[in-house]
Records
---
Amino acid sequence: MSGKRIAIAIDGPSGAGKSTTAKIVARKLKILYVDTGALYRTVGLYVRDQGVDMHDAEAVRNLLPQIRISVKYENGAQATYLNGENPGEKIREPDISMYASAVSAIPQVRAFLLETQKEIARHNSVVMDGRDIGTVILPDADLKVFLSAPDEVRAGRRCEELRAKGIQTSVEEVLADMRKRDADDSSRDVAPLKPADDAVLLDNSGMSADETADEIIRLMFWRYKKKRKFNFSYRIIRALLRGPVYLFNNIHVRGREYEPTADQGPYILACNHIFWCDPLILDAVTRWQEAHYMAKKELLAIPVFGRFLRSLGVFPIDRSGKDVDAIKRAILMVNTGTALGIFPQGHRNPGVDPRKTVIHNGVALIASRTHAPILPVGMRTKDMVHKTFRRTEVIFGKPIPWEELLEHGGREKDYNRMTEYIFSRICDLVESKDE
Ligand code: DC
């Protein structure tokens, strides 16, 4: 999946927790959250402010040429602009919900907003929430979820949301509004609220927004895992390489019992770095379906060799500065089920005691964003100098769960201390006694 844009569609009635959940999913997967309801709300706001009857389809249609809607992302949050101005929280006022629902039943309004929504997904990896995302806007989404919960549960949530914003209302009032709106949204002729045929139906009553988001990420993970089964070229190259890599590097593996299995979810493999061939060695010894390694971008720029490495899932990182894109890509990979291989030393260190080398903290950063366990791996050979046919030992250590890392960092963002801990575990393996 490297480099491919991903699209997750979340549809469902109001109060199902779509936007809260989608925002968490977006944050965890490092992709864009698109709130499509905001677009309909913005049209609704304009209709209200012009004093036009929301049920007069012709009058609403006549207003459309006066409306320009654009979406911008400011500090990671969506801002929906109406004729160059950001109406902010005005689109969240309770009566705007009714306006939005009414105008959304007008085919010309839907057509008017269609391209804006598709355009965002063409250029970004997205999690989009709405009513017709899986059916109309993103029919080819990687994952479609139809989120719901009983009416009373949803009304209770919406009521709390409104109260938190200082809008006083009763559950009964919200419930009545919600039922009317759901009935209107489901019964309209064009793009009615309904699950896509291939949507996963998820009732999240009794689940927190975090739990719902984790469930969606898990579903995404399994989707990708299924798709990857068909990544034949990668698998063939990897299978063909295994024999020669084992032979020329005289590989011996220890600690196999610690290697995570596919049903335990993705992991981050962190290893010391001796020789340029280390990613190939790790790729040959690990049994995970698909593993990706970060390598300096100069290596991948070498004409034929670079392409060969890319075909093996190696992806570039620019070590001259903070390569935010590479880190984001790595986070997305781990969150969608890929094993990620990373060398905290950054450079090869032939002939050097790993404890005396410089380490970089990308590994802790990625762990803190994914909460994936870390598999420490020690690689050693005589004098830490690689030679063809010289015995190379690859030693897997006990995986480090995120909670353990957190204890050693003290705080969520103490990446330096976390990295030191991870690397000390790697060094322990390098120095461990032969069995
Ligand atoms: O998700 P929301 O409450 O902000 O949406 C407001 C209204 O907009 C909702 O009642 C129906 C409509 N809508 C729609 O028809 N299609 C979408 N994709 C999103 C919202």
---
Amino acid sequence: MFYSVITCSAAVAWAPKEPLSLETVEVAPPKAGEVRIKVLATGVCHTDAYTLNGHDPEGLFPCILGHEGGGLVESVGEGVTHLSPGDHVVPLYIPQCYDCKFCKSPKTNLCGRIRSTQGAGVMPDGTSRFTCKGKSVFHFMGCSTFCEYTVVSEFSICKVDPEAPLDKVCLLGCGISTGYGAALNTADVQPGSSVAIWGLGAVGLAVAMGCRERGAARVIGVDINPDKFEAGKPFGITEFVNPKEQERPIQQVLTELTDGGLDYTFECIGNVHTMRAALESCHKGWGVSTILGVAAAGQEISTRPFQLVTGRVWKGCAFGGWKSRDAVPQLVQKYMQKKLMVDEFVTFNFPLDQINEAFKVMHEGKALRSVVNL
Ligand code: APR
Ligand code: ZN
């Protein structure tokens, strides 16, 4: 089958720290093992801002950012059998090839199949499908959803229920699944337990949702923004501590509040100091602390080793530990059955030409998530 180049609009990141620029781009047809998607909606996430701000050592420019998307398959390359044009899909920044040693292990979701080319901002054959003003433009996280059409590897995409609203379930491509899965898969929160969550953005509130589902008895939100307690209640936050209002270190405050410490803690900020506080707030003997936040390049975590010798466990996960192609369609079903909140995470909607506004409200802390409608 012959497919032609598509000319469409995209928000291009030409250089670090510059606003995104609305451009006309050319999107080449999918090659073997690739899929071209008509993107209908995309979330805006901190990882996009992290790269745009030049903090990502892997960041390459010019590029098309965006990795929380939803759309329709427009065309498929040679050999792609699990999708056909018209399918409703969510692109996946953690692929699942079913064949590499990571995919074959039940212990991890970190498929390694296209890791090196994805990190280099190109398709698995080493080239880009995007051109703008005669220049080749890099892909981002294997998704590049800030464009009306994008091309992804067949391993980086899953088919979802065609009834599901793509301008909502696009958020299951990153933030919500990350938090929810950290509670269910990584920490495996048990009924009746006590939990503290640092950072009540979309990620932290999705953790809370998972803890409530598991029957946690206490879910304490820890945030420097006092508005976050009310905002967190619908997601399962039962108590709130603002570290700024405490005279003593937060570890001490929480240890006293919980008779020796928490069963589970989660860091959803990306700050190495709160990562330490979260570990040290765990109960001796069994407390488990899970890191979800992405710290700036070069940062390191520290604690006294005695903390681990005495039975606290430090963990971390990416994309909530979900094996992406298996899990995302099931998470969409759970949402359709009203067993998983998604709509409540959408604070703003913007058209593509106002995408810089979405970054602005995110930096101002006003948005759980903004969805850009393409
Ligand atoms: N102590 C407590 N809370 C803090 C602190 C701090 N030192 N610094 C920030 N916060 C709170 C903010 O007030 C905010 O409510 O953390 C929350 C972070 O939420 P968002 O900025 O909305 O971030 P979110 O989208 O949830 O992502 C969280 O996960 O994706 C990773 O590293 C990425 O930073 C991102 C993190
Ligand atoms: Zn794999």
